Structures are given as C-alpha cells and as structure tokens.
Amino acid sequence: MTSHRTLVTSLVEEAVIAPSMHNAQPWRFVHRAGDEVVALYGDPSREMPREDPDHRALHLGCGAALFNLRVAAAHRGWEAVPRLLPTPGDPWHFADVRLGRATVEDEGLAVLWPVLRRRHTSRFPFTEERIPVEILDGLSAAAVLEGCRLGVPGAWHGDTVMGLVRASEMFESADASVRAEIARWIRTGAADEGPATEGIPSYALGPRQYDVTSPVRDFDAARRVGDRSSARFEKRPQIALLGTAEDTPADWLRAGQAMERVLLRATLDGLATSLMSQLLEWPELRSDARDPLSATGFLHMVLRLGYGPGGRATPRRPVSEVLSFV
C-alpha cells in the first residue's frame, strides 16, 4: 500500500507542473485505498467568474494536468487510462484515471517525460526565425492524437486574430472587475497578496513591449512592478489555434490534454511557447477568431511559438494540498 501511495504521489507531483490560467492550479486529486483509480476534480474555489464564467479555461488546466499524469505514468512503466466526466451528477468530477502496469511501452507519451519540467511559459521576445513546416505538422499531429485540431492561420486570418487580441486588451483596460480579478493572481511580494505558491510571480511577467506586435499579455498594466525592462517583440508572431468541433466540458478536457501534448512536443523540438487566452475570454470576440473555412468550430487557446528564451518555472502548491488519500 505504501509503495502505491508513493507512486500516486510521484505521478501527481508531475501532473501539477501543468499550466493553468493565471497559475491558479484549479485541480484536486483523490486516491482511495485499495483502488487502482486516481480521481481528478476541478476546484471551484479557484474559478474566475469574470474571465472564465463557463469554466472552460479551468477545464483546460485540469486537462493539461491529466495529460502530465499520463506522461508520468508511461515513464514509470504504468498505463493511465482516463475516463472523462464519470459521474453525471457531479460536474466537478472531471476524470477517473485507472492505473495498471503497461503491457507495451507508450513511446509517444514516455518520450515527452524529459521536458515535463523544462516547459515554461515564455513572455519574452522571440526571434524572427520561421518554424519549419515539418515541426508545425508534428504539432498538429500531436493535437489530433487527443481528438483536437491545431491550425496555423494564414495571413488574413492571423491578422484578424491579432486584431482581436488588441481589441481584447482594450476591453480589459475598460473593465475594472476584470483588472481586479487578474490582480488577484499577480505576485509582487506585497503583504496583502495571496500565497506565493500560486499565481504569476513578477519575474515571469516578461518585459514590457515597445510596440504592440505580439499577443503576449501584459499582466501588470497597472505598473505595480517598477523594475520591468522594455523590449521589442517579434514583428511577425507565429501563432497556432487549438480547437474542437464541439464545445462541451468533455471537449474542454480533451483540449487541455491536446494543449499540453503540443506544448511538450514543441519544447522537445526546441521551441519556446506561451499561451494566449485573452481574446477567448470575451464571447463577442471568441466566435470571430475562428476560421470560417475550417472544421474547427470552437477555439480554446491561441499558442505563440518560436525561438527564444524559455520562461522560468513558476511556483506550485505542495502535493499535500491537492492530493487526498481516503
């Protein structure tokens, strides 16, 4: 029993390295004695009513953690088979993951384990070097493995998305409640802030932009951090759009797994990455971001990809806060 608890603890330690909106870490794991199942729950205490009223982003973060758990299990010679939304009467019970000894190594998952702790959001400028088509095709194939689609927008569609990013920044600057919700998750070292084990620390904010050419979000629009430098970002940001044909909570969990698989694959390919959700937080903009010629009906994330400095690791809550043995 002790060894099984040790295994589950190690799996969850690596699951929670996953990205989540504002690093809120909106997940809980439960393992019952004598059971081979690890249950994943969303944590409603970490919701963001203004930016994520439908809990789409919360599901994406939990889906990313679920994917990391699968990778961690594959690395250890175990198989982690998820069943999404197993309790119809409990919408916060996101998944049951059944653990068993793998009969065949899942190389597609295990190969990603070395970059679990190397994947960090980078809010720094990238170079203008274009990503080879072969790498982009590989990232698209990674999304398909999780039942999702990753598309690189053409010139006109990319310009449309960038215009919507700028529109979302104006919407945000005009909405005090959204700005207050964001400020709740920024960590500058002030005494009245939340725990240092969650949220976005000031060192992860990146430099300010001289101009608005990149979809990198400025989480310190109020300029609470006084020692941030400024920099010019790439003139032609390389972005990819992750979406699904439908728009249900199960699709959101699949999209979270696809997002993390793509991010890990990109890290393995030597790319720096960041996630852009700001335009998707406004319903009036989100529908305009999709390509009308694409079968992807619903967008869940804009990924910025390129060559440049990787970000630094951001804090995580101790496993004892997110994992229960009952």
General description of the model:
With 326 residues, this protein is α/β, with parallel strands linked by helices. Helix content is 33%, strand content 19%. The strands form 4 sheets. A 5-stranded mixed β-sheet has the order 3-4-2-1-13. Strands 5-10-12-11 form a 4-stranded antiparallel β-sheet. A hairpin with a 5-residue loop joins strand 1 (27-31) and strand 2. Helix 1 (2-15) packs across helix 2 (56-75) and helix 4 (133-145) packs antiparallel against helix 7 (249-268). The longest helix is centred in the first third of the chain and has 20 residues, at 56-75.
- As a percent range, the share of strand residues is 15-25%
Overall residue-averaged pLDDT value: 93
Give the total of beta strands: 13
What summary fits the major beta sheet?
Answer: 5 strands, mixed
Radius of gyration computed on alpha carbons: 19 Å
Q: Which stretches of 5+ consecutive residues score pLDDT under 50?
A: none
The termini sit apart by: 12 Å
Structural category is: alpha/beta
Write down the secondary-structure element order.
Answer: HEEHEEHHEHHEEEEEHEHEHE
- Strand order, biggest sheet? 3-4-2-1-13
Tally of alpha and pi helices: 9
Residues in helix, %: 25-40%
Shape: globular
Briefly characterize the structure:
With 326 residues, this protein is an alpha/beta fold. The protein contains nine helices and 13 strands.
Strand-helix topology:
Blueprint: H1 2-15, E1 27-31, E2 37-42, H2 56-75, E3 78-84, E4 93-101, H3 107-110, H4 133-145, E5 149-151, H5 155-173, H6 176-183, E6 186-187, E7 200-201, E8 208-209, E9 230-231, E10 238-244, H7 249-268, E11 272-276, H8 283-286, E12 298-306, H9 319-322, E13 323-325
